[in-house]
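Table S2 (continued). Query chain:
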Amino acid sequence: MTTEPTAPMPDSNPTPGGSKLPGEAPLGKPGLLKRIVLDINASFIESEARSHPLSQLFWECTLRCNLRCRHCGSDCRVSDVHPDMPFEDFEKVLLRIRERYDPHKILVILSGGEPLVRDDLADCGRRIYRLGYPWGLVTNGRLLSEERMHELLRAGMRSATVSLDGPEEEHDWMRGSAGSFIHASEAIARLAALEDFGFDVVSCINRRNFPKLGKLKEYLISLGVKRWRLFTVFPAGRALKDPEMQLAPGQFRELLDFIAATRKEGRIRASYSCEGFLGAYEGKVRDHLYSCQAGLSIASVRIDGAISGCNSIRARYDQGNIYTDDFLDVWENRFEPFRRRSAFRIGECESCKYWKWCLGGPMHLRDDSGRLLQCKLHGLDD
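Corresponding output:
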């Protein structure tokens, strides 16, 4: 399951970082041709903000998990013993959305925690499917046995994302549990053997697994993986004070070059996640140009009922709560901070020349005060 949104107007025939498109400026600076394309994309995003067509809805159905990952992004302000949300509560949201939107055009993504720890997950999925929504999940794969996978497929599961963060030693180190690599690999192989099933693998790239990128790529190809998303950790949660989770100086550019070269190879579709505007790398490392789709086409319902943009946003940008507010009213009328973004042009963003294309980066990199935690252009724009 690809949780990244799709934006129009990607560059055709992407080239590895280090080579140039016609008119391309060096390093992190987009050249004339790229600026024209970026301006067109910015106009599209502006139009999308006005129409805000809901296309992805995350449901944080549990905070329980069977691993203890070093970079866990779960909201530490909500107790990890917070009870699972009853499906009936989320179902009311789905029924309300159906009154105005075509459910067949909205992908419901079950996340956590680890959604597979819910014994009723197949029943939840079946009821989502009967309401007309396609659905998928994000999982660490540990509980995705052959029997469980087919149970979920019969319940209408149409997509999945499995995390794999490196060879066995590096992955188990990241996930805090011996055997995690084996279980994730087995889950990936099972999904890869299915026909016409959309899934991808996502990898958290850090200082420890960075030297093994080539080995990891070959391993994923050997498992039959076609789509591979790579991301880096933002400084929050458990990763805030863990220097091993952050790439060393210069490695971020090397990562983007690796992704661009892998895309040119064509053996596996690698892409960098939606963590920010990348200057001259735009069009080279993703299938689309950058945009933060939180509040434009993506919404989430968190474990406590909070309504927000994408599920990665942990700062308090809740726009309502399903237990006190009407979801459709919230979606239609309360997401202006996500759609206008002017309130976030503060700090280093205030005078940034890339603002019209970046709009301050992804919302999940903003703290409670609205300030940017991390800018991906640092180290690229020389």
